[in-house]
Amino acid sequence: MSANNQPHPVDGARSGESAGAPDPSRSTLAGVAKRAGVSVSTASIAFSGIGSIATATRDRVLQAAAELRYFGPDPRARSLRQGRSGIVGVVLEDRVIHSFRDPMTIAVLDGISQELGNENGGLLLLTSTGIGESSIQSAVFDAAVFLGCSPRLTRSIEVMRQRNVPMVAIEAQHFDGVLSVALDNREASTRLAQHVYDLGHREVAVVALPMDALRQLRPLTDEIVADATTAVSMDRLAGAREVYAGLGGYVAANSSSDDGFAAGLLLLGGADVAGGAGGSGGAVGAGAGAGAGSSRRGRPTAIIAQSDLLAVGVIRAAESLGLRVPADLTVVGFDGARIEGLSDHDLTTMVQPATEKGRAAGRAVTELLAGGHPPDVHFACTLHPGTTAAPPPTAPPTARPTSPVPTST
Amino acid sequence: MSANNQPHPVDGARSGESAGAPDPSRSTLAGVAKRAGVSVSTASIAFSGIGSIATATRDRVLQAAAELRYFGPDPRARSLRQGRSGIVGVVLEDRVIHSFRDPMTIAVLDGISQELGNENGGLLLLTSTGIGESSIQSAVFDAAVFLGCSPRLTRSIEVMRQRNVPMVAIEAQHFDGVLSVALDNREASTRLAQHVYDLGHREVAVVALPMDALRQLRPLTDEIVADATTAVSMDRLAGAREVYAGLGGYVAANSSSDDGFAAGLLLLGGADVAGGAGGSGGAVGAGAGAGAGSSRRGRPTAIIAQSDLLAVGVIRAAESLGLRVPADLTVVGFDGARIEGLSDHDLTTMVQPATEKGRAAGRAVTELLAGGHPPDVHFACTLHPGTTAAPPPTAPPTARPTSPVPTST
DNA sequence: CTGTTAGCGCCTTCAC
DNA sequence: GTGAAGGCGCTAACAG
To answer: Where does the record place Low complexity bias (chains A, B) (predicted)?
Structure first.
């Protein structure tokens, strides 16, 4: 009889604990209660403070606890019983290292943690590695925040929903039952492109953020766009294409200045060099339908980078080729990351409230956990004019058509 | 009778769940078993795969689960029963934002996550906010990694020890029962200082990493050193002082180029300006005992920054004052962070294997959880000569005493 | 103010 | 290959 359970078979069994049995059944609330001569529930109250208890009794309990070196309830048991662990899961799209290298991600994480204030227990970092997804389904947390995640999470989301785990998605596509915190990526991108257009640029290329799981620097093709799964880059591209229809360029492997540099070289040197460091095909200049004006597909006079990191790389590439920014080349970014080391440049970019996004997500989580039904949140970007955008070298300085350029396709 | 427990009082009670009761007692393994016409234990086997089960039976169970939208065991219950949650806690000294801005911390985190591979469940980020410490004591995790933490964690460590939670400390002081992963900070720092010395520098100042909880840029005083709680900065200082006895300078508020910049201005402009932007007292030059050679406490000819970020800031400060690096000023860092945007400079620094540190910690955690007793780990730094260190403008190029300079105190 | 009682959801030894 | 039961450690109703 009596199925003897030993959930902690580590000690005696495995390792050769040399010291004299430091764990003859780890002290438990029951043990403390017994030693203090009270019932477990009373002891529980002594620790949680929930319910009333005589000071004397509590002292007795606490002293017994001290003697037994009992420091408080086991978090695991507590979380089972209460149905709450205090942990908020943050699901990152990428390997941790990539996420951490992106100042926007970091800002968002900081915002979340600001609002959650670690009184909740902490942030559990998870990654959606695609296959398996196991960790996200088997991890202990009360609420989940998805950070720019792809639709492959569908199943995990279903599981969470079934478990009544509130979910918030930042910059992801819409999922039913998942609160959305997002940016006006498309509109902002249009505004930025319009800014470039108004300066007179007609030969323009884009360096886009990754659009799918395949992390590789390559020319932006229709297939890639068609199969894209990343909302942010898609929206930013769509926005720019409202001004520059058919805008072409490169897709980066990730948001890094190294990738921006490589793409920049391809775009700026590639026109002549043809087949530089990896990109096989074309996709330079204003791509398919170069807007009104010169249809000559020469070197672009402006490059729209979908992130500031990429933009920084592009600027470096330009300078390494002897081009001056913005005199010879206009470069604009996106994010407002305030990347240091840009020498004298003040990057022209769309500033997004990254930390605020995180804070909003954190607040939403709090409300959801309290049973509320907060609404979706939208943020707007603001144009930072900066000093890296100027009229093209040879263009008419005052062209100002505000309507989209028609596609030539 | 029958104390009716409802650990999840959220639904009906609080929020006005309008939809038709999506959670009439969330599906559980017992429910699945009943529906499949088997016992719970059999159903459990169907999910865990541990134990033998007829294929037909398993299919029946899985189908029943699908029908009930049961997606697998509840992580909370599982973790209580098994005594394992799969979560590894990472305790950061600072607010998340500070940690995330430090490339070394990020590299370490990446190393940890590489080795833990998220099959374990994920990294739980916790911060040692000093007061309370509650979150670390009440959070669910199986093992803890402390990242450069101060001794204020003593109590939390005691709790973890009592709970049999394996602990690994990276770059922290020694704690009993906590596996240590560390760097030869002191020795490396000495080597770097010697390098500077060998170049002929005698007027030297340090920009130190924070030494205690008070995050504020201020002159390095004896009190600060005496009360220091951060092992890394202490060790690096001690190492440098073996070459430059009594080395003085500033303590930064955190490892950032902004702080480096501010400290740089104080050190380089401060000698004349006296009381520039906040630092009241002296602490410039080679401090108390300016080493052999000129005892004139003028502007330093070399600045030893305790991190690359700080060094970058110092370089910017120097250049903003019209000083050329390294012709007019030698600047050395520590870390090997490869910070971008340093223009043409290649920072002279001690390169530390940060990712490796994280990996080692991750591996140690794995072994400890498996019941092993892995040893402490030590890593060495390598000097990267770089291009930001050169002989001082007016110094004899070939001074080469290898023994420490005696203190004048 | 304290004790009793009934599980949270699952796993696991033991018997069949 | 499957079923039956005990309990991980704790908390929340209720009764006294």
So the answer is: 400-409
Question: Which residue lies nearest C3, CA-to-C1' measured?
Answer: A39
- Straight-line distance from the first to the last Cα atom of chain B, in angstroms, rounded to the nearest whole number: 80
Tell me the domains of chain A and their CATH numbers. 29-73 (no CATH), 85-182 (3.40.50.2300)
Supply A217's token pair. Answer: 């620097």
B122 contacts in A (CB within 8 Å)?
Answer: 89, 124-127, 135, 139
Alpha helices in A292-370 (DSSP H): 308-320, 354-369
Residue among B226, B121, B227, B242 at smallest CA distance from B187: B242
Cα(A155)–Cα(A164) distance, rounded to whole angstroms? 14
Among candidate residues B140, B126, B6, B154, the one with its CA nearest the CA of residue B75? B140
pLDDT tens column, A56-83: 999 999 999 999 999 999 999 999 999 9
φ, ψ for residue A332, nearest 5 deg: -125, 150
Q: What contacts B341, CB < 8 A, 6 or more positions away? A: A312, A339, A340, A341, A342, A343, B312
Task: Report how far residue B112's alpha carbon sits from residue B101's, in angstroms, rounded to the nearest whole number.
Answer: 17
Mean of the per-residue pLDDT values of chain B: 84
Return d(Cα A175, Cα A179) in angstroms, integer: 8
Distance CA A70, CA B112 (A): 30
Tokens 């340093």 sit on residue: B342
Tell me which amino acid residue B318 is: A
A31-62 pLDDT, tens digit per residue, is: 999 999 999 999 999 999 888 899 999 999 99
The whole-angstrom distance between A403's CA and the closest CA on chain B is 38
Q: Is the CB of B5 under 7 A from strand D?
A: yes
Of A217, A46, A11, the closest CA to residue B371 belongs to: A11
Looking at residue A10, the DSSP 8-state letter turns out to be: I
A29 Cβ contacts chain D strand, under 7 Å: yes
* Spatial separation of the C-alpha atoms in residues A177 and A143, rounded to whole Å: 13
Dist CA B408 CA A144 (whole Å): 60
Asked if A164 and B26 come within 8 Å (Cβ–Cβ), the reply is yes
DSSP-derived letter for residue A329 is -
Q: Report whether pLDDT(A149) > 80.
A: no
Residue with tokens 């992106």: A102
> What's the mean pLDDT in B53-66?
94
Query: How many separate helices (H) and strands (E) can be counted in chain B?
Result: 14, 13
Q: Could you give the CA distance from residue A193 to residue A201 in angstroms, rounded to a whole number?
A: 10
Q: Would you say A365 and A168 are in contact if contact means Cβ atoms under 8 Å apart?
A: yes
Token pair in block for residue A246: 């058919």
Which 147-176 residues of chain A approach strand D with CB closer than 7 Å?
none
Range A14-31 burial, b when 16+ CB lie within 10 A, else e: eeeeeeeeeeeebbbbeb
Tell me which of A179-183, A362-366, B291-295 is least confident. Answer: B291-295
The pLDDT > 70 percentage for chain A reads 80
Closest residue by Cα to residue A200 from A409, A34, A405, A408: A405
How many CB atoms sit inside 10 A of residue B101's CB? 20
* 8 A C-beta contact, residue A171 and residue A93: no
**In B 47-106, which Cβ lie closer than 7 Å to strand D?**
51-54, 56-57, 80-81
Instruction: Report the C-alpha gap between A262 and A367 in whole angstroms.
Output: 44
CA–CA distances in Å: residue A3 to residues A6, B78, B201, B398: 10, 18, 74, 79
How far apart are the C-alpha atoms of A281 and B249, rounded to whole Å?
56
Q: Which DSSP helix (H) or strand (E) runs through B315?
A: helix B308-320
For chain A, what's the residue count? 409
3-state class of B404 per DSSP?
Answer: coil
- Is A397 touching B (CB cutoff 8 A)? no
Residues A204-214 as b or e (16 or more Cβ within 10 Å = b): bbbbbbbbeee
- For residues A219 and A282, the answer to whether their CB atoms sit within 8 Å is yes
